Amino acid sequence: xxxxxxxxxxxxxxxxxxxxxxxxxxxxxxxxxxxxxxxxxxxxxxxxxxxxxxxxxxxxxxxxxxxxxxxxxxxxxxxxxxxxxxxxxxxxxxxxxxxxxxxxxxxxxxxxxxxxxxxxxxxxxxxxxxxxxxxxxxxxxxxxxxxxxxxxxxxxxxxxxxxxxxxxxxxxxxxxxxxxxxxxxxxxxxxxxxxxxxxxxxxxxxxxxxxxxxxxxxxxxxxxxxxxxxxxxxxxxxxxxxxxxxxxxxxxxxxxxxxxxxxxxxxxxxxxxxxxxxxxxxxxxxxxxxxxxxxxxxxxxxxxxxxxxxxxxxxxxxxxxxxx
Length: 324
Prior knowledge:
mainly alpha; about 5% strand; 3 strands
């Protein structure tokens, strides 16, 4: 933190770049977070330059201009949720600008967040999830052993898509029956590795080893990535790991889930929601679920109580004779 105000005529683009460097170096923000802030803040800076001129300083930005920018986002067809994310990025930037002495007041604090509709994700039942995970065969999966492992880890461990694809072989702690997860902000946690997930993982690792041995591209350093792509793209190149991408995981999950009867809006995070919801339904403590999911705030985990309450209401409406 700077003790005295600094030169506030620094171009907006440079201030955005300095903020992003702080996020990366001091807070350890993920590449996904950095890309999102980069996009949102550069779009906002471009809007200010277009409306007020390139010489506009950050100290001259007022809350009315921020509101006007959000209005243009809505006019372009962005959802309220996307607009709220843009405002959150701008607020974080101005909070840092105030602490660093670039501005005396934070105009973003005067702008209210667009009212968002309460949306609770649809969560498959325990029976539906068991049916999907237990039926990963060649008719729906290009590499059944790997793809079953993906589902087992997402649903059995409740991890995020990015956490899954970032896993390395060394993160599997067989002796402790746990997996080391590197979550948001470089935070680490250990999650239990259940019997079903461990069985699927061992079967996949045997096939992974055989495929790497048979593939000419893999000669040299062996990739540390736990989950690798089918074509082993990237092996043989400097720094290449053939690591499976989050986008590929999304396609794999959706193809299997939809083929097995789940709705078309299923994605990897759906399995994480199912993990938390089903634990709560079976009597798990909310604090324990918070630790397993790696939630920083208990209020985030409490969304699952809303999910189960909504499901109970549905059961009541459908079955109780006095419900109608």
